[in-house]
């Protein structure tokens, strides 16, 4: 039993066992079992032959057998199977008591048995007293060895070491047994080994705690440990860095010291309910630092129980910057950075809600598309900073004119879209739009300069116009264009029937292009001083099979802003080059100018398609082709248009004319930034130059500017000799008009 106890203590102290130790345990258990069975057999035999002690021997035999089996079961269960695992101290207490009980039982058995046997032998064999005395002496020696030697020497030594020395912190104490006894030496060595292992485990545990503390202190997350009552008993460095509270300031305090007041009592009640039922909670909490600064933290709390004591471990990190970055990203994804208005993506989401609300309330929803009038010149003349300030003010005025449940969105540049819900009638919508236009038309004071900006707006009403958002926006855009054509600074409602008619007209124009019903007429460009024709202006006409000749203003506006407008523009360029080739073949050298729309000029393939057209007609020198660009078109994107003009001049060699100069927002900036070759004076000024001094002054100024910037100048719409002479006197030599020859088709001009 001593060997079993010693080996078991060694295994538990080491925390593991190898195969050899397991085999030794099995061998020792077999030896204990065999010894116990042998002892039981001898006790039963002794009792059988000695009836006077049979009862007591039988009782003691059963008790010894039971204790032996308990020891065997204890060792198998806790040493070999490790279920449930015991500490070295627990195993020591249990098995020491068992062994002590065994030896004590033997002690109680041997003395009565010896006395009884001695008396019996004295009565029966008086002549053998000497032999009996030897037997008694032997039994007492055996008793002294087991009962006193083991109990006093071994057990008290063990208890002295484990309960007294080790309990008082004297971890260097060791067993000093020196008797040359295998059983006792094994016990001594095992006891000393157990003490060594205990110290080693203690050092490893201390080192583990140090490593754990180092890990905790190096964590970037703030860590708090609270007792069952929620009072803080430990923190790490990160907690101090995050909250601003030192260790001495926070220990013993409740974490509610960090409360921001932004969470309700219901929030904390739900948190504790989850924590108590699931032993874990995680979420975001607004807290307050020592400085008073609020911050949002990601907090996790875990409830643990150790030695019947409850603790709470909290881990928090400051995610305020991350949240701000996330909000900024969401803002950029859904809002216009400049005006803080919803962008296209958020506008589409709001549209779905507005449609649902319209259906629920059985009301109208106005989808409005708004474009500022004369905004580009402000950017060009006063810079984008001034333009941005006006856009911000426009956004503020729009929001002030609608309700909170309505939506104002910036679609891009100077374009805005509105969703106005809960409208009962068209007249109610008109009242709102009139208020919006009046507000936008008020002066804008930017850096001490007053600016005047109006707006053109197109509207379509849902469910009268029932379609998806893209279709409704297109309808509103078309209506806005009609407002522009009607003179700007007004609004126009989309008319589905009118839209169908316009679509039908576009189909007719497409058919006219396909069926070669479009033709070019040419109006001469004349040097009024010499009378020579130096060029011609190409004018498109539609030779309708039943309606006759249709002028351009009756069909070109129908295709404005469409791909068909680009197709027609490319056709005009190619027909002009074809006509130039024909004239060159007949020894006629003329310059031909063609009108280019803004939409065509700014299209992605304009330069490529123009280059391909020039390459198709190699007899034509590119400088004999002149592109006429409306001044108002050039203002739509002055920087881009200027780059396109320079590319056409430098790379392709074509000439550029600025058409209808004076009708737009003319300025020296345009003459400087638009490197055109020729300036055309609009016919509206030429027509009344003889009667209106203002028109005379405008023409005189344009001619002077053209000469100053080294530009050619030509007047359009000269219809009488008096007009021509006046222009010659003012310094304009070139003109076009019916004074010379009526506009005719290209093949009949000469």
Keywords summarizing the entry:
750 residues; alpha/beta; eight-stranded mixed barrel; five-stranded antiparallel beta sheet; 22 strands; disordered C terminus
Annotate the secondary structure layout.
Elements lengths: L1 H13 L4 H31 L4 H27 L7 H37 L4 H37 L16 H37 L3 E5 L5 E4 L1 H7 L3 H4 L14 H14 L1 E9 L5 E13 L2 E10 L1 H15 L9 H18 L2 E10 L2 H7 L1 H18 L5 E6 L2 E9 L2 H15 L3 E3 L2 E3 L2 E9 L6 H17 L5 E3 L2 H19 L3 E10 L5 E12 L3 E3 L12 H23 L5 E6 L1 H4 L4 H11 L8 E6 H4 L3 H15 L2 E7 L6 H6 L4 E4 L1 H5 L5 H16 L3 E4 L5 H10 L3 E3 L7 E2 L5
Parallel strand pairs: 11-12, 14-16, 16-17, 17-18, 18-19, 19-20, 20-21
Antiparallel strand pairs: 1-2, 1-5, 3-4, 4-5, 6-8, 6-11, 7-8, 9-10, 13-14, 13-21, 13-22, 14-15
Helix pairs in contact: 1-2, 1-4, 1-6, 2-3, 3-4, 4-5, 12-13, 13-14, 17-19, 19-21
Could you explain how this protein is built, in words?
The chain has 750 residues and is an alpha/beta fold. Helix content is 55%, strand content 19%. The protein has 25 helices and 22 strands. The strands form four sheets. The protein has an eight-stranded mixed barrel with strand order 13-14-16-17-18-19-20-21. Strands 2-1-5-4-3 form a five-stranded antiparallel β-sheet, sandwiched between helices. Strands 7-8-6-11-12 form a five-stranded mixed β-sheet. Strand 20, helix 25 and strand 21 form a beta-alpha-beta unit. Helix 1 (2-14) runs antiparallel to helix 4 (88-124), helix 3 (54-80) packs antiparallel against helix 4 and helix 13 runs antiparallel to helix 14. The longest helix is centred in the N-terminal third of the chain and has 37 residues, at 88-124. 29% of the residues are buried.
